[in-house]
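Hello,

Our lab assistant flagged a job as stuck in the queue for most of the afternoon. It eventually completed. Since we weren't sure the result was trustworthy after the delay, we are filing this so someone can double-check. Below is the sequence as submitted and the structure that was eventually returned. Let us know if re-running is recommended.
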Amino acid sequence: MITGNAGVIGGGIRCHGVSPAIIGNRITANSAEWGGGIICDGYSFPAITQNTVAGNSATLGAGILCWAYSSAEVRNNIIALNAASECGGGIHCWRHSSMTLAGNTITGNTANERGGGIHCLDHSTMTLSGSTVAENRASAQGGGVDCYGNSSITVMNSILWGDSALTGPEVSLDTSSSITISYSDVEGGWPGGGNIDADPVFVLAEKGDYRLLWGSPCIDSGHPDSLDQDGTRSDMGAHFFDQEDYLTLYLTPDTTEVLPGGELGVTYTLINRWAQPEALWILTQVILPRGGILGLCGPDRYTLPAHFVTQRHLDREVPATAPQGTYVYRSGIGVPPAVVYDRDEFTFVVAQP
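-- returned structure --
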């Protein structure tokens, strides 16, 4: 975890003239004038993969800033709740730089001027594919995406939804710049082949879960020549709906940090795509910080009606004696003893009181 740091250039990580792989980190609560979470500048070419970049702040580029003839590959990250006092709440690409963004969830970021989610300017280029840009805010222009100053952005198989700004809530650009959007879900609509304007039907956006519920118009609506991991036509957005089985389980926590003696709220989402009712058993376990397994409940039997989606919220008590550390909350659905339809899990931290 990279947290609580402050600097002028690069609060969490600075890449200057280097090309590192930045993989699997939590980069949170850092601050800087430029690049609150990560900055790459001076001919840097980093690969930024599977990180959580959240709650950082900066004047420019609160989450990730790519600047000064640099290029970054940014794949499968969560970039959320970062705040820029000027431009580029989530991502800022500036001054003859380029970024390839794929599979990212860019949500809840803010900018007091332009580009709540993404800001691209000054002869820079960007490609955005298979990503979700949602619920970002800019006070002036480009709540989701802002592009100006002889720059260009290409968007495909993505969702731009629920963003807000005085001008261009989803997309804003000046006359010297261009943006091409195709096979994407854009609130308010946007010209381009395969584009739609329809509620993406997220699992629980209010709790930060931007996966798709069955029935979402974004499922199987991406470019017809691109495929998801299950072999079906690509979905729009960062999270494809896995169609390998007809029963699906999602777990959505209220929070990922709790205190001993507190409660951990979890929403279970169960989906039955079969044309008949299906019996299943649910088993829930917690993986302890030192590797032991605590059986929390189950296996308990349930029957889901045909073509059915249900959500249930549960509060789990955290023992007052629970040691500090990182835990894994894991549930699975199936038929004992060996059939597993689906499973899901998330990590949470028991923090010091």
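-- support follow-up --
The delay was a queue issue, not a problem with the job. The result is valid. The chain is about 0% helix and 50% strand. The longest strand covers residues 293-304.
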